[in-house]
Predict the structure.
Amino acid sequence: MNFTVIAQDPACAARLGKIGTPHGEVLTPVFMPVGTQGTVKTLTPEQVAGLGAQIILGNTYHLYLRPGHRLIQQLGGLHRFMNWHGPILTDSGGFQIYSLGALRTITEEGAHFQSHIDGSRHFLSPESAVEIQEALGSDIMMCLDECLSYPAERDEIEKSLARTARWALRCKESRRREGSALFGIVQGGVYPDLRQRSVESLTEIGFDGYALGGLSVGEPKEKMLESLAAAAPLLPSSRPRYLMGVGTPEDLVEGVYRGIDMFDCVMPTRSARNGLLFTNGQKVVIKNARYREDGSPIDSTCDCYTCRNYSRAYLRHLYVAGEILAMVLNTIHNLRYYLRLMERIRDAVRDGRYSDFRRRFLEEQKAADVGREVSAGPA
Amino acid sequence: MNFTVIAQDPACAARLGKIGTPHGEVLTPVFMPVGTQGTVKTLTPEQVAGLGAQIILGNTYHLYLRPGHRLIQQLGGLHRFMNWHGPILTDSGGFQIYSLGALRTITEEGAHFQSHIDGSRHFLSPESAVEIQEALGSDIMMCLDECLSYPAERDEIEKSLARTARWALRCKESRRREGSALFGIVQGGVYPDLRQRSVESLTEIGFDGYALGGLSVGEPKEKMLESLAAAAPLLPSSRPRYLMGVGTPEDLVEGVYRGIDMFDCVMPTRSARNGLLFTNGQKVVIKNARYREDGSPIDSTCDCYTCRNYSRAYLRHLYVAGEILAMVLNTIHNLRYYLRLMERIRDAVRDGRYSDFRRRFLEEQKAADVGREVSAGPA
């Protein structure tokens, strides 16, 4: 994997970059749609690529449990299995395991956990996390990290980031396969000095890229942005910086402003399936009665297939009637909204006007929020 | 609407034809995918057209209840509402109402019924059935008929087909809109003389096409084929003949052999959503464990998107994991199977070798059935 910074915004940390992978190049800042179980939910890979997705994310935890990484490897790897021929980043499985709560135990050796599907017992170590990701044929792998929930005590965080560094080294040393990049994950909660310490121990080992972990895990939005502002500048500028599991459109705009290159989040796809549609102005809750006779598209400025061909009235009808096509069309719109936002972000960085872009975007969002409060009648 | 017979098979009643509609031509024999609630379930209209669908069916009962024919009319008609630009045939709503059982009462005036959605009370007459279909902008409308379940007494059937003829006349007389064709529906159960009487009363009124109703309503397969063989030759050869709600691939082959031009059925789409996939050999129940590691496509002779890009193992994984893409990919395959079968049927009729085609097809199906019995082990 290689990474080149193409342009650096003169007035903030935003930058335009290019990541080279065995399955093609990725322009950054980039948003990665989430393909949890070997599919970006509801869409064919051609539809996903057609929306402008350059790279997608696969979930190691889910694919390990079902259908199993060995089976996927035997059938030619994840790219072939799911018919996605662009780059794939895989997470380490750690985050899902931490989410299991009572069903897991963490030791220095690794994580013991029970499957959410059938309760069967499993063990994930730094070594097996890499082994699984290599079997999947991942382009960009993530180290297994220990992820604490918010709030956590300072001494807990200290212990955890030390363990995360030891695990990161074990991950790096267990690599067997050429071609897959490996990213380290910086922990440290909301403490800048702990973030600094985590960055130092990881850069000493040396990784192809660095992710900020332990953000967007329940802390207030201001805390998240504060921690991000403190932690992002600590990451080496010569490597891609990845803000895991984030976030809202505003979060993406704020993240890029602070120098983040990569994002992933289930928000656009999950919201779509729940009938919540993104626009530059208000968020559209498509089931609302106010859209019953609305012949206009979700967003008249959107260039997506859904907005070019369907009315809000039709989308509301499909949603209310429980039709699967509702989820497909909504997912197309929301993903396109996110991916088009990233295109606009990259254009702004390329032109050296990102600070201005950010300011206007946040103002527009705020105005739309106020407008929504004013216009919110019975729906 | 116009209809031209292009070729007549020399050895049986099969024929190749062409129906002209305001939204384009339809080559017959044709299979019409069912778009119950304004969507062929799970697929975009472009996907449906790409599979070779020439015309789809819309359900008057469902669209009348939700979102309402007036709303669809106000938004430019059903074609625009659902973004399908080819021909649409609409049923009369009658069949769905008969299926409601205790929730409906039939009088000479029409059908009183309760909505399956909210229990609200409604009334459908021959006149309103046409009014609704005209509001939808249907290319081919169906008369409201009285449909008895099987078995029914001869005198019941006699009364019913007389009413069906009176209703058909009322339907014809209530037409207001140019461009929509109207088909009559022949009843008469399994009695050839009653079928004859029904045909006579309908042809006297005169319709753009004729459908065989009251078949495939619970009678044994042999009875259905027997009634079909007796009734089909009675229909005027200068008009399209439509066998409603039928059926299996074998039924289509047998129907064409007896002179049927048009078919519709939910079987390919509904089976797909339940993981039952059609092939020329055995039917594939995709969730079976035997497909867990199967790297081959559903059907290696199939030219569909699903078979060109995905393994049975992947499709099984999606299905077992409850992924929506499973339903999309399965629907693509099953619809393509049906539509490709119709292409092969039309080719065989064009070449005057349909009897031979039918014999081989039925032999292959029989062999596959026997093979299935022999090979059926634990799955």
Observations:
- The longest strand of chain B covers residues 2-8.
- The radius of gyration of chain B is 21 Å.
- Chain B touches chain A through 36 residues (CB under 8 Å).
